[in-house]
Amino acid sequence: MNEFTPIPAREPPASSVGIIGWVRAHLFSSWFNSALTLLILWSLLQIVPPTLQWLFADASWGGTGSEACKTDFVSPEDGETYRVDAPGACWTFTRVRFVQIMFGLYFASHPSEVWRPVLMFALFGGLIAPLFIPAFRWKLPLGAFTLLVFPFIAVALVHGEWLGLPVAETNEWGGFMLTFFLAAGGIVLALPIGILMALGRRSELPIIRSLCVFYIELWRAAPLITILFMASNLLPLFFPSGVDFDKVMRALIAITMFQSAYTAEAIRGGLQAIPKGQDEASSALGMGYWKKTGFIILPQAMKISIPGIVNTFIELFKDTTLVGIIGLHDFLGSAQIAARSPEWKGYDFEAYVYVALIFFMCCFAMSKYSQHLEQKLDTGHKER
Q: What is the pLDDT, as a whole number, of residue 52?
């Protein structure tokens, strides 16, 4: 009987594994992909180095005035020396006007009160940080406290009247702080309303279903800018004499109504994705409507709806810039006002870049957290 000696397994070719293998498989797998990769690399080389040089290398960081962002230029024609703008970004502007851009005009004109919005944001960060720790045991009570109690603490700190502090009227709120209030308030208030509207739209009672459909389609059919105008000018007419909401409250109501309609549609998509057998099995076990909806149907629908819901939240966060049309100075509006002052005239681009970077970081964080939730709550069956 012949005996065969097995041949030892050989290592895969070096060109098919590691970094080289990944590059060959993903960037240079065909002549078209190779040409496209080279074109993109060439474009990046033309764009990225000058951008980084403008952002950091040639940027102005020190000083307290616009003169820190200028440099001497000797004219080759007459030999005279002129003061011209430096070739890099003027981050001195954002540093000097930081309080105005982030917290609004009141706190810019009252530097001794800046600790109030700073403390508010610090408390918010301290409350949500443990929620990202997997081993933290009290996430549910902490989350409930953050949603239900912290908003009153935040308003009390910033406004000041409840705590006996100097009053910061809401018409003087602004900057990123105002954007945060409007976006966070709209998200927190719109989510439960959206859930109820989504459930009502699928109700078997014709009156409830019709009312929910009317509500959703009404707010979805109008652009947010129109709703803000209506809330600012028409909402006071529906209240008795002497009852008045300031502009921030009016904007918050308009944003909540608008956002709740889109949230409802995102959740309705998740509800429709649940197999009918889930509902039938729950009914067979003797569960009532609210019990099977709260424990069986809605949790699965919310998990499926996470991408759509977060997408609407990101849109809401960016759409808060529209409140400028009713006289509120949001994050973008405060940056524009700061850049249009006589001393800093001509540095609008730095203001827009600064605002865009902050918006990007916030929206990117929301997106990444939604992806984390999707992976954490994923119990579906994927193709292997």
A: 94
Quickly tell me which residue has 């000797």 as its tokens.
74
Taking Cα atoms as reference points, which of 375, 372, 193, 377 lies closest to residue 303? 377
E strands along 111-222, which residues? 174
Domains: count for the chain: 3
- Exposure on the CB side of residue 159, measured as CA atoms within 13 A: 15
Picking from 125, 144, 168, the residue at the C-terminal end of a domain is 168
pLDDT for 1 = 52
Domain that holds residue 138: 104-168
Q: How far apart are CA 255 and CA 323, in angstroms?
A: 10
pTM summary value: 0.89
Q: Tell me: the pLDDT tens digits for 214-260?
A: 999 999 999 999 999 988 888 777 777 766 678 899 999 999 999 99
* CATH at residue 235: 1.10.3720.10
- Residue 17 is predicted with a pLDDT of 67
Higher pLDDT, 47 or 135: 47
Reported as type and span, the H/E element at residue 221 is helix 206-221
**CA distances, 374 to each of 171, 272, 307, 377 (Å):** 39, 18, 8, 5
User: Is 37 within 8 Å of 28 (Cβ atoms)?
Assistant: yes
Residue 383 pLDDT grade (very low, low, confident, very high; cuts 50, 70, 90) = very low
- Find out whether 306 and 269 touch, Cβ atoms under 8 Å: no
- The Cα 103–Cα 208 span in angstroms is 43
Give the residue among 87, 67, 119 at the shortest CA–CA distance from 344. 67
User: What tokens were used for 373?
Assistant: 């939730």
